[in-house]
Amino acid sequence: MKRGLWIGLLASLLVGVLMAGLASAQGFGGNLTINDSESANVSVSVNTNTMVDINPAAFTWTGVDPGGVGDNDTELNKFFALQIENIGSENITHVWFNATYPTSSPFGVGSAANTDSGNYIVLSNSTTESYKFINRVEYNATTTLVYLTDPEGALPPDNTRFVYGRIHNSSNEYFWMINKSATGFCNGTATLYIGNTSHHKTQTGTANFQTGDVESFTLTIHPDDQDWGYTDITTGPFNGYCAAVTSDCSRLFLSRWNADLPFNLCGNSGYAWDSAANGDLTPGESFYMKIKAYVPYGIYEGASGTGKITAIVNKV
Length: 316
Hints:
Layout: H1 2-22, E1 52-55, E2 69-70, E3 81-86, E4 94-99, E5 121-125, E6 132-133, E7 135-139, E8 162-169, E9 172-179, E10 191-195, E11 214-218, E12 220-221, E13 228-232, E14 242-246, E15 251-255, E16 273-274, H2 275-278, E17 286-294, E18 309-314
């Protein structure tokens, strides 16, 4: 009796050891009978691809008043941010954005034909509430503004010497002027003036550019494309932006998130993701930017033209 019992125990232990040796190396199974196993090596080589994905694929704001802000309360799906993910196979160094914009002034037209919703979009880092335009365009005023005084004291401004308009920042508008260079162009030696006090429904704002509270910045001709003048804005309400002006003085652009020419030489025209500050954006990693729509006064009712914002990445 005793011998038989011991033999039975030894046999059970031996079978248990053999079964354990046949089990999966990663611990799968364990409840099935295994009689044998053999492994095959597998290997995969992944191509080098730089790829990015942004979601959601569309934003729709409804019921926004002129001079209002489209946020998650007025966005159709309550979206408040844009997720940017590295879906490629190599580290990403930089991420920046482009936005579509109207090719002619959308104001004083009598329809929404010239509008582009991309021109309303502002982005902020996920950790701040500092919303800035990607590459907003402003066109010269289409009519004389009789209550503005130019830096040389002319009321209204001398249009042979100055071009002027407004920077539309939702419910706040800031007047700007550019004195043309000696050759009549705005791509070098011209000066950009921006009033510090906003114009809105209940206040005129900075309207006297001779004696009022005004910031000024000298434009530099872009060495790679002489159709542009540019400058960093380092003081005033648009501190942190890059300003770029077409050589014919017809358009002023303000950019914070677009690193392409003509903004590429500005210190203020930064990346949404920069490996120098954030480290590489590794495959499978993502981040998000908060998003809103700043709708200016004087935009025609109904649906503005559909715009587009594009995330651009590189590996350098």
